[in-house]
Design a protein that fits this description.
This protein is α+β, with helices and mostly antiparallel strands. Helix content is 43%, strand content 9%. The chain is built from 9 helices and 5 strands. The radius of gyration is 17 Å and the shape is globular.
């Protein structure tokens, strides 16, 4: 499936998302306010939209998302919730949740540039799935840079989920447990995604 290059604000409007979910404060648009209400959406359209919404939020492509579905389907529990937990456990998302990046896109870039350590080891894979007990820290040489000093100040104003224990002073976060579905800051009907892949 092709990558959408529409402005962030337009995509947020299409998915009925607040730009704050992605870490953006001022990106809003009032163009075509009734664009989403013109046509009746089919059942398939609703299912597809929910899948595209999750892909957009976490910045993953179709092949990777389908792989997450396969993993989630094999795990114990509810498949839809398992998909969300897998996406929340991605390293780039954890960096975003701990406040060490303004957006998930920025978190992905910082991870790619090897600014973070997982359990003391150098990591540059944004899609790395973390598990309970893993510790994410900012590389010592990166902490003193102007960029991370700014991010630490920003992190002080951001709330972290309960499954993530964040030590903002030492630029460190520990996964106390697996992510909790009820703590999501956006609305999604993951059952529609499961129905889409079950066809």
């Amino acid at each position: 499936m092709a990558v959408r290059h529409d402005p962030i604000a337009k995509q947020c409007r299409d998915f009925d998302l607040s730009p704050a979910v992605l870490g953006y404060d001022k990106k809003t648009t009032n163009r075509h306010p009734g664009a989403n209400t013109r046509r009746r959406v089919s059942e398939y359209g609703l299912q597809l939209k929910e899948k595209q919404k999750l892909k957009f939020i976490y910045g993953v492509q179709e092949t990777q998302f389908a792989h997450y579905y396969e993993i989630a389907e094999k795990q114990a529990g509810i498949t839809g919730e398992n998909i969300i937990k897998l996406l929340e456990r991605r390293l780039d998302n954890v960096v975003f949740r701990m406040g060490m990046a303004k957006t998930r896109r920025e978190a992905r870039q910082l991870v790619r540039h090897a600014h973070f350590r997982v359990n003391g080891k150098k990591v540059n894979i944004p899609s790395l799935l973390l598990k309970a007990g893993d510790v994410v820290t900012v590389k010592d040489s990166s902490r003193s840079t102007a960029k991370f000093k700014e991010l630490v100040e920003l992190a002080e104003t951001r709330l972290s989920p309960s499954w993530l224990e964040v030590d903002k002073e030492n630029c460190k976060a520990t996964l106390k447990s697996l992510p909790i579905r009820e703590e999501l800051d956006y609305e999604v009907n993951e059952q529609l995604i499961v129905e889409l892949y079950s066809k």
